[in-house]
Each structure stands twice: as structure tokens, then as C-alpha cells.
């Protein structure tokens, strides 16, 4: 261990650094407040041939008891706004900026584009990884570029949105570039021109003034607070499963048995189903086994009551996957990401 490097912390506790509160320790931890610190961290990992794990707010990860190699958090916290043409405002955001605080700040400046993404936990740098989305909006709708440090050659580069290959809870960062890059900064384009997106569910009924981004922001915060457990009170990682995409023929078969099943036809011919509804139909809402359970107001959220391990969580989640597969023939896929040093 090169212990002469002050930024490098050995055996760092990550129990409070993941919203599921899974017990975990980082073999080595590196906090990078500037881009040059990210480059140094990446160089260090490369020189010692350590695994490199990038951690943001820990709200979408399943941490193993020990994260080997180097765990790096990019805490660049700068935000800048630049007026463009036709009401466009270009926003540059450091990876370490709290996502919800950014949304709040943009809404306060009467900028439109990310108000529907209020109250999503985590840091801005992680937002493109799964193309965060909520209430009919995804970050991909406003993302222009991502700046990163590439582990493969230690170089900084910028990826345009098209190169990020954003999809539903998906991006190139979960595939070809998984564990290869550290995102340091994002470029977004927002607008001073109102563009309310109220089509999702009953959102429109909850918004007092649709011409106000602040009113939409507040409605979304209120709905989310009603539905989702606060990770600080009840540890969780938000939606534990993705909404499954199934073939039209399977969706038709399921619909003939349950005509009220929520279903959303996709442009590619497949149909998106609501994972929470499927779990609910299996009678599992509120089900608890040991340290883990299914939230009683939102069947998509698995909660940790304390004292549990990753292994127990995975076996609990497999029971849910098995129940849904048996009842509907649909295979649920996990949303939070496993860290490579665990046997996941
Ligand atoms: C209560 C709750 C509600 C949620 N609601 C939503 C929702 O509505 N919509 C939604 O999309 N998600 C939701 N999530 C999931 C989560 O908040 C998002 O995925 C968020 O973007 C994760 O950010 P984070 O900083 O916590 O990332 P982490 O959990 O720390 O990391 C997530 C992944 O990104 C990688 N990563 C993190 N930072 C970087 C970086 N700088 N460079 C490269 N890779 C990086 C990590 O290695 C990991 O693979 C919710 C979670 C919770 C707990």
C-alpha cells in the first residue's frame, strides 16, 4: 500500500455510503475533488493493477462486504450556466453535485427540462449511467455531452450524447464502458421556455399551475414522498427491478387473463409492463423475510430492516423473481448494479 499518498484511505467504511445500508468496506478509498485528482486516482489504480470502482451517492449499487482495489468518488462540485440561442441555457455540472440540489437550483432559475426528475437520490455523475428517468422524462432528453477520464489510456475525453447510447435504464457505461471510465462533468441544455410534461399517470391532476416548473417540481416531490421510503429512515435502493419489456404476443396473452394490467407499447413492437404491478399480483407487497422486505406502499422497492447481508438480499430478490416468473412467465431484471468484486 503506497501509504505516503494522503488522499488514499485504507479500509474505508462504506456502510453509510450506500442507501441500502449494506455492510461494506473499501480496501482503498480515493476522494477526488478536482479533475486532476481523478486522473491521479486512475493512474494509481492502473500502476498497481487494482480494480477500480467508482461510487457516487451509493443509491443504485449492491456493495459486497469488501470492495477490493480502489474505490473512487468524483466530488467535483462546480455548476455553471450559459445562455444560448432561442431560450436555451447550457448547464455544465460537476460529477459530485447532488442531483436533486441541481434540479432545485435550475427550477429556481425558471429553467425547464429536469423538473420531473426531482428527488432522485445520488450525484450528477451517475445520472447518465442508467439514464435516470421519472414521470415521462429521462436525462437523455437534455444531455449534450459527458466528460470523463478513460481508464484504458488515462486520457480525458468528451462523449456526445449519441455516443452514450442511452436507453431505458441503460447506456454504454453499463456495457462496453462498464468500469472503464470516471465521469467528471456533464453538459445539459435546458430552456427558459415552458415545456410541461404532465402526461405520466395522474401527474397533471396534482400540478396547481402547469405553466410553472416550480409547481411541477413540488407536485413530483409530494408524490414521491408519499410513495417512496426515505433511504435515511428505511434503507433501500429505489426500484429494485426494471420494468420488463416483453413480446407483443406474451403481453396479449397476459392481457386476456388480466385486462386491467398496466402495459405500455414501445416503438420497437415490444410492450413494457409494470414490475411493481406483477409483484403486487403475486401477493408479495409488504412481504418480509428476515432483514429484507417489500415496501408496503410500492412493491418495486425492497427495503432493508437492518442486520442483513448482500447474500441474504440476493436470495430474497431471487424469491420474488421466481414468483413472478411462475405466475406470468416474465423474468424480472435487477436495476441496482453489483460491484465486480462480489460474486453476483
Ligand atoms: C429512494 C430512491 C428512489 C430512486 N428513484 C429513481 C428514479 O425515479 N429514477 C431513476 O432512474 N433512478 C432512481 N433511483 C436510483 C438512483 O437514485 C439513480 O440511479 C442515481 O443516478 C444513482 O446515483 P448515485 O450517485 O447514487 O450512483 P451510485 O449508486 O453510487 O452508482 C451507480 C452506478 O454508477 C456508477 N457511477 C457512479 N458515479 C460515477 C461516475 N462519476 N463515473 C462513472 N461511473 C459512476 C457506479 O459505479 C455504479 O455502477 C432511486 C434510488 C432510490 C434510493
What's the layout of helices and strands?
Blueprint: E1 8-13, E2 25-32, H1 35-48, E3 52-54, E4 61-62, E5 66-74, E6 79-83, E7 88-94, H2 99-108, E8 133-134, E9 137-138, E10 143-150, E11 156-160, E12 181-191, H3 203-206, H4 213-227, E13 236-239, E14 245-246, H5 248-257, E15 263-265, E16 271-273, H6 275-281, E17 288-289, E18 292-294, E19 301-304, H7 310-328, E20 337-338
Parallel strand pairs: 2-5, 3-5, 4-20
Antiparallel strand pairs: 1-2, 6-7, 7-12, 8-9, 10-11, 10-12, 13-19, 14-16, 15-16, 17-18, 18-19
The structure holds flavin-adenine dinucleotide (FAD).
Active site: 169, 239, 335
Subcellular location: Cytoplasm
Catalytic activity: UDP-N-acetyl-alpha-D-muramate + NADP(+) = UDP-N-acetyl-3-O-(1-carboxyvinyl)-alpha-D-glucosamine + NADPH + H(+)
Please tally the β strands and state the result: 20
Strand content: 25-35%
Task: Compute the separation of the termini in Å.
Answer: 27 Å
Helix content: 10-25%
Number of domains: 3
| Average residue-wise pLDDT | 95
Q: Using the CA coordinates, give the radius of gyration.
A: 21 Å
Main-sheet strand order equals: 6-7-12-10-11
* CATH domain fold name of the largest domain: Uridine Diphospho-n-acetylenolpyruvylglucosamine Reductase, domain 3
Distinct ligand kinds: flavin-adenine dinucleotide
User: In terms of per-residue confidence, which ranges show pLDDT below 50 for 5 or more consecutive residues?
Assistant: none
Name of the level-1 CATH class of the largest domain: Alpha Beta
EC number: 1.3.1.98
Organism: Salinicola lusitanus
InterPro entries: FAD-bd_PCMH, FAD-bd_PCMH-like_sf, FAD-bd_PCMH_sub1, FAD-bd_PCMH_sub2, MurB, MurB_C, MurB_C_sf, Oxid_FAD_bind_N
GO molecular function, one term: UDP-N-acetylmuramate dehydrogenase activity
